[in-house]
Write a structure and sequence with these properties.
heterotrimer; A alpha+beta (825); B alpha+beta (166); C alpha+beta (280); A: Aldehyde Oxidoreductase, domain 3; Aldehyde Oxidoreductase, domain 4; 3 domains; 20 helices; 30 strands; globular; B: alpha+beta; 2 domains
């Protein structure tokens, strides 16, 4: 590990490690970005959808006549009219596990299963006119009982979301290792908690949207997606069109956070209707549609059990998870909670770790990936449990962590669930965190403030995340069961002038690929990143790629680009050797020159070599002209970033309002390519998690109505609710890839929710509050305080995901399960 | 169909005149009628601020203003922030670039326009004043950290008269 | 989301505005800043057939000292009010409304005529015992604050009347406080409390407390006022009086706040607002 301080420039003189300003920004800060909504085509029509306003019902009739008669309306279609070759895809087929899978069509067929379920599509010439027309379509429903509570949904006699499947249970899946019975028997204390990780929304500021243009036998789809190549593959099946005739373009994409890691109904509908009408068809999502029908995330109830010895040794960790998956599957819906299981060991050496998952259908929209996708849920459970256990033991929670950390010497370290962590130094990040947070001083200050009625608390979390989604043999069909490969590829093309273009299959939505990849390739080629252009997001011009998610961009896609550049460098060295009349093995690349080792006066710039390659009058015998290489890269392992975070909060105990006074993060994502981009990712991740911890929640009421259907109610934090973040890093290179990099896009989101909960609980312990579920809204915090003070006679914390009725009598308990003393019985 | 109404608006210094439906939102007038797509739309409820433009020098959410209400007004959009042609940037744009104040870029034009109003009202804001001054604009990527830093830096460079005047 | 179709008129005089409005019938609506109406129209929760804009009617904007108070033109924007420090609690409350963009468009006349109980200025208007001047086909009339708020989003302003100005007493000698509780700073008040206190040698000579978002309309916390009026002002007497702030209220619950919690907040915020108003 080497230590890094914020704001430091890279240690290298080359482009890698440089705090380089982004190449993307000039167009974006001047309003010249080109997002889907900015694209307009000649003859373009607009599509609007009629969506179900009930949670569960049979469709008895749809009267579309009034809409069809309206001026400018070109077509109105319903589920019966839509003729496509396949339902929407779900690509997880775990070997040996049955996953009940309902057919999910782009338009409902006979039954609606959630508020927002599309029932009809209207296409017309006027953007406003199609909305008017959609309002004229009359749908009659015969309402069916709505299934809302996932635990009740599993009870015998519960109404079913899908009658034909005979159950609301989607699947059961487990991952674990070690002897759990022995682990719990060995424990002196067994701590049990029911931890609710509530439903959230990705809520990218750009809603989804797409435009389909059918010309002759080919279709082009511009869509706000994280995965253009996969969308093309799915469309081929749905539309019955050969893959090469479909072009999918992800233009500028305004944020994704997992919510655009999907293939949605509207993409199919736009293509279908463009073919039917012979005109381009555009659809843009409203924010209300976004909150109702773009994937949600989290929504797990985790029954967690941790066995600990008196000396702080953790003997075992068992998580039983009930996952509310909603009514249908999107791309990876049932898999996402299972991803949590891979990091259920956290940063700790725990002999027995087990995760058992039950998925449940409810009459809500599908959950799927949202920033972190399973790993925030696992980390939340572990890191909340650690502090709960520490309190039970009367032990310092940091001491408890240190006692169980996997030591630096153990890496690569196989943990109980059977995965191998590549590299780590968990003591190192925690030590560095404590350089920024003086805990003794904080405790003194906290005690003083409490005497004045100010409730200040500190919370910590440490985390390890699995990212760099790949290798294919582990994640793919015969491993975890996702039906695909998980490599990335890149083409590096050096132009005659010595400038270069990188073509990547990885498709960004704010991460800064154009900058980071340019730095990698520039370093490998001996040129400046300003002269490297990165092309992405177009299935016709770039190589196939799996997309941007799971913090895999740099460690898989960036590594592929780096490897392609190394191949170019090798060819350039051969050519340089030929031109300099030296042996290829004597050529080195130093300070932008291909030179004979130790003779900088006799060096060639890449431009000299590329010119020779493209005007091949003097190239070695047998060498092909040109200077361009491709690399396909499938890593040997995941990469495992880690870190330590702390939050200091003030709780107004009269109102329950929580203010974040300080947030300090020390992250380790391996070698830094661009510290500026790393800090940006960490900041965004932390804010996203503080959003979940304090503000955001997708709420359906008991009838399945979506209560949080606009940004008025789905409360993203603004700048005024957040502090500036204090960030720092350590660098522990990954041995998995040549760059030594890990991922960082989700780190903040993974670490920060338990930090917040632990901080609020720390603040409120003197009042008797020992545990709280998120979201830590003012009311819920106030209720927890009342409950603790009234020793059970006051109101209890309102159950999450429930709207209380007008008189507040709908509140129900969601406190901790009673801790059980174990081991001695 | 409602009777259309003529609106005369000066947009980024250029006089524009159009017949519009009364219900046409200013943001759609700018984007669809005038082709100024730098102003974005992120919500239906005046919460996100992606559509922020300056109207007679003051920031407004152009999704909650009818085009007809802008009749006679001067509107400035992100496209009008930097002097055209010579590649120069407004100090706020410069600072967003320098301090990595954007990631996906979708909220950025609205954020920059809100910052312009903020710095006009308060050329020397504290961090807290910047945070409150931007409370009408949502960003999901940056956690606001670098946006706040950028606005503070822009304030400083504008006070010292560096870069392009506002 | 876009509004349903409507016709639009932008009269250039008050008389023309009033006649256009009355000719427009029941479905005609006045448009001031539009920041209450347009969001409802976009979500199609309101669909007027005619919008009569006040944007071009001269003389409806500005703040004037008059009659021992302030006459504020109905079209005066929240931002201008927020900057007018001499308006005291009115300026302070205006500065807390939503965000800068909304404050740049929203108007005091629109806010009070709309009468949203979650709005800040209606509460301040009620506490300050202001007066609205409205003009209709039958001429001009004054509406006292106590007469203004009838029921949910319904005020005493007639469908063919135009609010032209809002009079706010200067409240010389009163201390004030406005406490607004929100989850996020751009949100509507979960609960708000406006307190005005006139003290004489430590005794409460007059007190007015009004509540935001504690019922269908802005409300006066009469029990608190009665408990404090004529009493000596101390943290204890204030705390005791504040305990009665939610008496008689029946606040609507929502996903963020049950009625019980809102009543609790009303008590806490009343205490804080009274403390602020008494310099505590």
């Amino acid at each position: 590990m080497s230590a890094v301080t914020e704001g430091a420039t890279g240690t290298q003189s080359g482009p890698i490690g440089r705090r380089m300003k982004r190449k993307e920004d000039p167009r974006l800060i001047t309003g010249r970005g080109n997002y889907v909504d900015d694209i307009s085509l000649p003859g373009m029509l607009h599509m609007a959808l009629v969506r179900s306003d009930v949670a569960h019902a049979r469709i008895t009739s749809i009267d579309k006549s009034a809409a069809e008669g309206m001026e400018g309306v070109h077509a109105v279609i319903t589920g019966e009219d839509l003729d496509v070759g396949a339902p929407l895809p779900m690509v997880w087929i775990p070997p040996g596990v049955e996953v009940k899978t309902p057919e999910h069509w782009p338009l409902a067929r006979g039954e609606v299963n959630h508020v927002g379920d599309p029932v009809a599509a209207v296409v017309g010439s006027d953007k406003y006119g199609v909305i008017d027309a959609a309002a004229q379509i009359v749908v009659q429903y015969e309402e069916l009982p709505a299934v809302i509570d996932p635990e009740k949904a599993l009870e015998d006699g519960s109404p079913l979301v899908h009658d034909d499947l005979g159950t609301n249970k989607t699947h059961e899946w487990a991952l674990g290792g070690g002897d759990m019975d022995a682990a719990m028997a060995e424990a002196d204390v067994v701590v049990e908690r029911r931890i609710v990780n509530h439903r959230t929304a990705g809520a990218a500021i750009e809603p989804r949207g797409c435009i389909a243009e059918w010309r002759g036998e080919s279709v082009t789809l511009w869509t706000a997606t994280q995965i253009p190549h996969l969308v093309r593959l799915f469309l081929a099946g749905e539309l019955g069109v050969s893959e090469e005739k479909i072009r999918v373009i992800a233009p500028e994409v305004g944020g994704g956070f997992g919510s655009k890691l999907n293939h949605y109904a509207e993409e199919v509908l736009a293509c279908y209707l463009s073919r039917k009408l012979g005109r381009p068809v555009k659809w843009l999502e409203t924010r209300s549609e976004n909150l109702a029908a773009t994937t949600h995330g989290r929504d797990l109830i985790v029954y967690c059990k941790m066995g600990v010895k008196r000396d702080g040794t953790i003997t075992g960790l068992h998580a039983k998870i009930v996952a509310d998956l909603g009514a249908y599957y999107q791309l990876l819906t049932p898999f996402i909670p299972c991803f949590a299981a891979f990091v259920m060991s956290g940063c700790y050496k725990i002999p027995a770790v087990q995760t058992d998952i039950v998925g449940v259908f409810t009459n809500k929209f599908a959950t799927d990936a949202v920033r972190g996708a399973g790993r925030p849920e696992a980390t939340h459970a572990i890191e909340v449990m650690i502090e709960q256990a520490a309190a039970e033991l009367g032990m310092d929670p940091l001491e408890l962590r240190r006692k169980n950390f996997i030591p630096k010497e153990d890496f690569p370290a196989e943990v109980a669930v059977g995965v191998v962590y590549d590299s780590g130094d968990y003591h190192g990040t925690l030590d560095k965190l404590l350089e920024h947070v003086n805990l003794d001083e904080f405790r003194r200050e906290q005690a003083e403030l409490r005497e004045h009625g100010v409730y200040r608390g500190i919370g910590f979390s440490t985390y390890v995340e699995i990212c760099g989604l790949a290798p294919s043999r582990v994640v793919g069909p015969s491993g975890v069961g996702i039906q695909g490969g998980f490599w990335e590829s890149a083409v590096v093309r050096v132009h005659p002038s010595g400038a270069a273009t990188v073509y990547t299959g990885s498709s960004p939505h704010g991460q800064g690929h154009e900058t980071g990849f340019a730095q990698i390739v520039a370093e490998r080629l001996g040129i400046e990143p300003e002269n490297v252009e990165v092309m992405h997001g177009d299935t016709d011009t770039g190589p196939f790629g799996m997309g941007t998610y799971g913090s895999r961009t740099l460690s898989v896609g960036g590594e592929a680009a780096g490897r392609a550049a190394v191949k170019v460098q090798e060819k350039a060295k051969k050519l340089a050797a030929h031109l300099l009349e030296a042996a290829p093995e004597d050529i080195e690349l130093a300070d932008g020159k291909y030179q004979v080792r130790g003779s900088p006066d006799k060096g060639l710039a890449l431009a000299d070599i590329s010119l020779a390659a493209y005007v091949p009058e003097n190239i070695p015998e047998g060498m092909e002209p040109g200077l361009e290489e491709t690399s396909f890269y499938d890593p040997e392992n995941f990469v495992w970033p880690f870190g330590a975070h702390a939050a200091i909060v003030d709780v107004d105990i009269d109102t329950g309002k929580v203010e974040v006074a300080r947030y300090v993060a020390v992250d380790d994502c391996g070698r830094a390519i661009n510290p500026l981009l790393i800090e940006g990712q960490v900041h965004g991740g932390i804010a996203h998690a503080i959003g979940q911890a304090l503000f955001e929640q997708v709420v359906y009421n008991d009838e399945g109505q979506l209560i949080t259907g606009t940004f008025v109610d789905y409360a993203l934090p603004t700048a005024a609710e957040l502090p500036s973040f204090e960030t720092d890093r350590t660098e522990t290179p990954s041995p998995v890839n040549d760059l030594g990099v890990k991922g960082v896009g989700e780190a903040g989101t993974i670490a920060a929710t338990p930090t917040m909960v632990n901080a609020v609980v720390d603040a409120l312990r003197p009042l008797g509050v020992s545990y709280m579920d998120m979201p830590l809204t003012p009311m819920r915090v106030w209720q927890a305080i009342q409950e603790a003070r009234g020793a059970g006679s006051g109101p209890r914390a309102t159950e999450q995901g429930r709207q209380t009725d007008e008189h507040g009598s709908g509140s129900a308990g969601s406190g901790p399960a009673a801790p059980a003393e174990g081991g001695e019985s | 169909m409602a009777e259309s109404v003529r609106v005369n608006v000066t947009v980024n210094g250029e006089s524009r005149s159009s017949e519009v439906e009364p219900r046409l939102l200013l943001v759609h007038y700018l984007r669809d009628t005038l082709g100024l797509t730098g102003t974005h739309i992120g919500c239906d409820t005046s919460n996100c601020g992606a559509c922020t433009v300056l109207m007679d020098g003051e920031s407004v959410k152009s999704c909650t203003v009818l085009a007809v209400q802008a009749d006679g007004a001067k509107v400035q959009t992100i496209e009008g922030m930097a002097p055209a042609g010579n590649g120069a940037l407004h100090p706020i744009q410069e600072a967003f670039w320098e301090h990595h104040g954007l990631q996906c870029g979708y909220c950025t034009p609205g954020m920059i326009m809100a910052a312009a109003d903020l710095l006009k009202r308060n050329p020397n804001p504290t961090e807290e004043e910047v945070r409150h001054g931007l409370e009408g604009n949502l960003c999901r990527c940056t956690g606001y950290h670098n946006i706040v830093k950028a606005v503070m830096a822009a304030a400083e460079s504008m006070r010292s008269g560096e870069g392009v005047p506002a | 989301m876009i509004p349903a179709n409507f016709d639009y008129a932008a009269p250039e005089s008050l008389d023309e505005a009033i006649s256009t409005l009355s000719q427009g019938g029941d479905d005609a609506k006045l448009l001031a800043g539009g920041h209450s109406l347009l969001p409802l129209m976009k979500l199609r929760l309101a669909a007027p057939s005619l919008l009569v804009s006040l944007g071009k009617v001269p003389g409806l904007s500005g703040i004037e000292r008059s009659n021992g108070g302030f006459s504020i033109g109905a079209m005066t924007r929240h931002a201008e009010i927020a900057d007018a420090e001499e308006l005291g609690v009115t300026a302070h409350a205006a500065s807390l409304i939503a965000d800068q963009q909304v404050r740049n468009r929203g108007t005091i006349g629109g806010s009070i005529a709309h009468g949203d109980s979650a709005g800040d200025l209606p509460t301040v208007f009620l506490a300050a015992e202001g007066t609205v001047t409205a003009q209709g086909p039958n001429g001009e009339r004054q509406i006292q604050a106590t007469e203004m708020f009838k029921s949910f989003l319904t005020t005493a302003v007639g469908p063919d009347e135009v609010v032209t100005s809002v009079y706010m007493p200067a409240l010389d000698g009163y201390g004030w406080g406005y406490e607004k509780f929100v989850r996020r700073s751009e949100d509507w008040a979960m609960v708000g409390v406006c307190a005005l206190v006139k003290s004489n040698g430590g005794t409460c000579e007059d007190v007015r407390v009004a509540l935001t978002h504690m019922g269908a309309t802005p409300l006066r916390a009469s029990a608190t006022e009665e408990a404090l009026r004529g009493q000596s002002l101390s943290p204890e007497s204030i705390a005791q009086a504040a305990e009665q702030a939610a008496e008689g209220t029946n606040p609507p619950g929502d996903v963020n706040a049950t009625p019980d919690y809102k009543k609790h907040l009303a008590r806490v915020l009343t205490k804080r607002a009274l403390m602020a108003a008494t310099g505590g």
